[in-house]
Specification:
Helices cover about 30% and strands about 10% of the residues. By secondary structure, it is an alpha/beta fold.
């Protein structure tokens, strides 16, 4: 029911350069964009799950649960909150403008030894990937995108979220 734009950005690790640039110079007016669904991954330790940075913030929990269920995946909401991952990922460039945004990430619940084994390490090579999990992960992401795009319910920041006011201003609500 709604168009989906696939946007590849760069420079996240050095200041969210690509996503910040796009948010400041969009191809489509930002008030016409209903959601930003970022995907990013720094490893995983739970191949039965996906992790969502921003869980409980945009009214999309039920859609996301339904989006991952056909792939036998569960959701880990806001893993490692002490890391502030939501505000360090590309989704925040859109959130700051008011657009409801989340990051869909491979499954983990904490930065443990298994995650840190390859996180920003030269050992992070293709042979360390579980390709069966990667396939389910990508399918679940695409399916969740379609569910949100086709939903009659438009995502909004939950009451009290720090980006709620920016959303109200962007969408004139």
């Amino acid at each position: 029911k709604r168009s989906i734009i696939v946007l590849a950005v760069t420079g996240e690790e050095i200041g969210l350069l690509g996503s910040a640039y796009y948010a400041d110079h969009p191809l489509i007016p930002l008030d016409k964009v209903i959601f930003n669904f970022n995907t990013d991954g720094a490893g995983y330790s739970d191949t039965g799950a996906v992790s969502i940075f921003g869980w409980n913030r945009t009214g999309t929990n039920e859609m996301l649960e339904a989006g991952v269920a056909p792939f036998d995946l569960k959701i880990i909401g806001d893993p490692a909150p002490e890391q502030g991952l939501f505000d360090r990922s590309d989704n925040v460039s859109f959130a700051r403008k008011g657009i409801p945004a989340l990051t869909f990430s491979p499954g983990f619940s904490e930065f443990d030894a298994e995650i840190l084994q390859h996180y920003h390490q030269v050992s992070d090579e293709a042979d360390s990937i579980d390709y069966a999990y990667l396939k389910k992960y990508c399918q679940a992401f695409a399916h969740s995108c379609r569910m949100i795009a086709n939903s009659p319910k438009v995502p909004v920041w939950v009451e009290g979220d720090k980006y709620e006011e920016a959303g109200k201003e962007l969408y004139n609500k």
